[in-house]
Amino acid sequence: MQAENKKDYFESSDGTLRIWIEQESSIHIKATTKEGDPVELSESEALEIAEVLKDFASRI
């Protein structure tokens, strides 16, 4: 997974998880596989997403 610096959008490398800032007032998260199953995260992926969410939260 890779975060884009100072952008209002984050997407996992496989596209199963997306996080974005909507109208500069809320954070949206979509996390499903193409089969509709929940996305599983490793410890490092969860920590990376936590950092993305903290960054996004500080900007809305």
UniProtKB/TrEMBL annotation:
Organismal lineage: Bacteria, Pseudomonadati, Pseudomonadota, Betaproteobacteria, Burkholderiales
Name recorded for this polypeptide: Uncharacterized protein
The organism's place on the tree of life at top rank: Bacteria
